[in-house]
């Protein structure tokens, strides 16, 4: 076990860092706040992943449409027989 400064009250109390017990002599509510913070981070990560997947799908679709438009506008030149 290691004694470190409390994460919530920014060093006013000290906690014994163990497996799952977070006790602070100043705020006595560190475990609940840390669990809420972890849950908030997890939900933010899920939102970021959904947004990233949506943007990747949108960009790939736009890229395919742009390539098709370019191929329609720039048709292959006709090959003329060599003389």
Automatic annotation (TrEMBL):
This is Uncharacterized protein. It comes from marine sediment metagenome. The lineage of its organism: unclassified sequences, metagenomes, ecological metagenomes.
